[in-house]
Queue: 4 jobs
Job 1
Amino acid sequence: MDPTDLIWMNGDFVAWEDAKVHVLTHGLHYGTGVFEGVRCYETELGPAVFRNAEHVERLLRSAELYYMPVPYSAEQIRAATLELVARNGLSSCYIRPIIYRGYGSMGLNPLEAPVDVTIACWEWATYLGEEGQRSGIRAKVSSWRRISPDSLIPQAKASGQYLNSVLAKIESLKAGYAEAILLDDHGYVCEGTGENIYVIREGEIATPGQSNSILDGISRRSVIQIARDLGYTVTERDVGRAELYLADEVFMSGTAAELVPVVEIDDHRIGSGSPGEITRVMQASFDDAIHGRSERYREWLDVVTPRDLETPAGEAGAAAQRITGATG
């Protein structure tokens, strides 16, 4: 990881090396945090954060689901993100906002612990590698199932829940694959460790739906809209494991991974064993959207402008009351 100059913490910009938390931070011990993965891309309009408002909305929704009252508005977090990118002088980067229960109390009741908000950004290449994007990746169906909605909240992007993905990821890497595919608690295809998944057969695209314990990915929403705009039929439904092996094409999408073909699953070659035609069309169209080359999707871009440097550091949070007590 290449450090940048500044990180935004609770309304202030602090040096990267000074962005620290106490070892008794509640979120460190119990996973009481929610986060987002966001990307900023270099475009002809300037650096632009892809679907910034939607990411902030989901971040705050995840916090609400875990009873974390956030002392900043959506607009304050959005503005802080743009200012952070501008202050760090980045034309493209990965952005990680996180809301977590901080230092102040211990035990399984988190309601007395403060709610802290941090945003960091740094340059980070695509998660599954440029070669994976070009030639496709090999994946395996994990022995670990995706967390059940009876136990946690799959639709929330919560820190502690990602131990589920960590186990699946390690298993796949140790077995020689680039990624894992998790099934839901009913045995249907769910998602990758950090990506949504799509199965193509006879020209139609199928993807697991909300009832399959997926995270409703921002990239997923974008991919579905782009596919339908291109005239493809996209169906959100239960997808059986065997459908992965019988597919003509399979691909995944996520903020960190972007859009990546899957050419082999459990040692079954998918289609021809190379990225398929529809996957390539989708990949190119998605790439045009995130880099601002498609006029149709320009509204998805939150452009970083010189104005974002004009706000005094910390102004976005100066008037916010720090919430340290119970939610009530």
Job 2
Amino acid sequence: MNQNAVLYLVVPCYNEEEVLPETAKQLKQKINTLSEQQKISPKSRIVFVNDGSKDKTWQLIQQYHQEDEIFQGVNLSRNKGHQNALLAGLMTVKDCCDITVSLDADLQDDIDAIDGMVEKYYNGCEIVYGVRNSRETDTFFKKTTAEGYYKIMKLLGADIVFNHADYRLMSRKALEGLEQFEESNLFLRGIVPMIGYQTGEVYYARKERMAGESKYPLKKMLAFAWEGLTSLTVRPIKMITACGALIFIVSIIMLIYSLIRHLTGATITGWTSMMFSIWAIGGLQLLSIGIIGEYIGKVYLESKHRPKYIVQEYLHDEN
């Protein structure tokens, strides 16, 4: 491993003008400290990716770049979502650096964990995951649903790292591996483990957001969770098949039971059970059609081969 690696911090930004000044300050200090300790190269940089922000985020990024070459900027042509913005940043800089660390602009992820990530890279890891050691800062609802989601994903066969989001170190070799994944439906925390290579984990305590509002309200969190589930595994469709087989077996049993009752002369009013069966099976059918339709829709989008993002402008060193 290169013992004086060029590190690029890749930071997706969407309407982050409130936190960006402090974020830029802290990240610059972290890069300078690591450089002074000779843990990384002085050529290391901070790359802000503007994901179609509607506020002054891009103007701030331009200002920082003009004032100090340590700051670089990638401006997407329109809002493409966090995962695409992150991928855009990683793919834009992969040939300029030895390692990247991706993190959110709100700095809830402890930047001191970067030291441990770099150390593990020098010890042979191509990918290092930043993992939360607790969820004490989360509400009871968010903690319960988040941890439940990770467990469900594991149960359904998705290989994801528990309590890990998108705070991770990736070497250039790992980025080249990531580049080979061409799907449009991105869920990076599920795709990255598929790359392989030696991996490591660094544990940290998540902080409160410095300012501004979370870019992931409940609605977006649920949509993101569903995207991840349907992008990584087809087990929900297999569950539909199993459920259908179970209902078929139950229906055969009920048919035999009904015939026996009829032949013995017993009368069955059956209104309640009939109505329940109609509603239950009808609802199950609609749910099943919806899940299958979701997968068909993804196949349709993948077949179009649309670009995941378009870089409008890249602010970087001239040399």
Job 3
Amino acid sequence: MIESWRWFGPLDKIDLTEIYQTGSDSVVTALHDISYGEIWPLPEIEKRKAMVEAAGLTWSVVESLPVHEDIKLGRGNTSYLFNNYRKSLENLAKCGVGIVCYNFMPLLDWTRTNLDAPADTGGSALRFSMAEMAAFDVFVLKRKEAKESYSEEVLKNAEELFKKSDQKYFDKILRNIMAGLPGSYARYSTETLREVLKNYEGFIHEDLRMNYQNFLREIIPTATDCGIRMCVHPDDPPWDVFGIPRVVSTKEDISFALDSVPVLENGLTLCSGSLGAHPNNDVVKIASSFSERIHFAHLRNVKKEPDGSFQESSHLKGDVNMVELIKVLLKEEKKRKLADVNSHEIIFRPDHGHEILSDGERNTHPGYPLLGRMKGLAELRGVSKAIQNELDLL
């Protein structure tokens, strides 16, 4: 497998020379300063690619080429937005960047309530607390029908948490929830979040699913013509948030997406942490089922709790059997190589990581420390090499 590292561009607190020293072969990045829905200009793509290559690395994956909210809602001038998206794909193809990771999560990206939860081996980790989410949703945001989103046990714990916590505590939870959004995306206060949620009133799963299918039918033919492999990232967490539907959360959801346009270019980003947070997802089986369409992998791990909460664990210590998962990916690589498939290797990156040692001094993007991710990469690299040696003997 090809090792990669997510880089947030020139404003990233981790620079390309440091990434090179991790041993990664390539960089995963995007033009985060360009507004959603606008064309990525060819000169800007070329400039970013030149920066990466000057450091001895390859720009292997775009993460992400964002999907405008109006496409997800199926409103406004979607023809204009689709045309711009297609033009961006064409420009990326001209620069030889052949894989595009994207997601179809409405309004919010990955969502956590705590960005510095104590980790069992020291340092800190990202955490999603169902009680914290419910306390904010029900008692602070006061969303209509919020109570229907949570179990009785969670609601009881949420009420107790609300009674003993002050506004400063919940302001921090809101900031944490917003932390997953890309740098150029607007953050919300409680009031503005309450207002923007009105756009989703009456918006159901079937609406989002049909709008997603429409996106695929509009975009994948261009990707196919350009030789670009699109790969959708699963929802994180893999369930509805603030009552907003999510439709890339389970094996059945992925089947719907890939079957909507059944070509190789309509593929999957296998994110073991996102899928692994769902109590009913068997990540290894999901990877086996869709292995031919996996173009990119985010490898991380989580520990789930009975009430739906989860915390990001060390890469090899969570609920996902990382050894078996990497074995699935390497077997797929071998299958592609025997079939003489071009670009048979699967690109992966160590996704997220604990803040350890001096990581806390760097103030990096939440979930993306230097040392914690490098530790994860080293662990994944070791597992991969051991399995590869085993497969070479077969």
Job 4
Amino acid sequence: MSIRLLKCAVSIIIFTTLLSGCRDRTVTTVENKPESQTGYYHFTDALGQEIRVKNPQRVVALMGSFADTWVKAGGELCGVTEDAFDEKGLMLPENVASVGMYNSPNLETIIGLNPDLVILSSETKEHAALKDVFKQAGITAAYFNVTYFEDYLSMLRICTDITARKDLYEKNGLDIKQQIETVIKKNVPSSSPRILFLITYSGGAVAKNSECMTGRMLKDLGCTNLADENKSLLKEFTMEAIIKEDPDYIFVVPMGNDEAQAKKNLEESIEKNPAWNGLKAVQRHRYIILPKENFLYKPNEKWGESYVYLSEILNGSR
């Protein structure tokens, strides 16, 4: 090979290398642009997945309260589970499809909607089982865990960041936080009321401690939950245990759609005991059935109303 040809070959190699280097730097620069420029939003979900979304328009929510949160964040839905209608009572457009029950969603229907984002609960085993399925199908699936108000506030923040509706984060989140803080500050009991919190179902009732949604509200308002002190109540709930503890208040939330039936079950399983009427809470009319809309289902933007409701009971104004 002549010197001239050798020089030309070297020049071509150098030029190609430089061109390749320029292409690599260009890609890196694009990927590292701020979110406001790329349009993508990144967050880590409740399962530790790194989620990357860009203005999703076809969103499916597999829990009624999550569907409500997405709507309250200014988003639109193409599919929801039945509890969005019969429990949350959401008024959604007619073209929003039902994708089954929240604990048995119809996978075929969901995929058929061609969603660009599916919102699920990390605490629902049927949802967690779908993670790999959605990943293989190339569908973005984000998991959330909402038990307390701060969990709702965190989810709302992510959703309003995605929809670019900071105003709705303030209206449906920060304003509610301020309301709750005000209620807690005003509700400082002279002594901590000893309370029993029950969830009733067809087979009877179970005691709940302060680690559940309503239990946490009562704790925030200065109550002492008997199931926190006596953990055996969580495993074996009996009328004898109630008599022994003799709480100042008994709060009950009926589970299920038929509230009348739930109350009947409560009467047959607990209230029929002759010792029931001798309880301090019953004698002082502090045996209270709470509305499930505020104390069983996630109240979302009405979380503040739930705190007010309990506060009024505790200070005697309700």
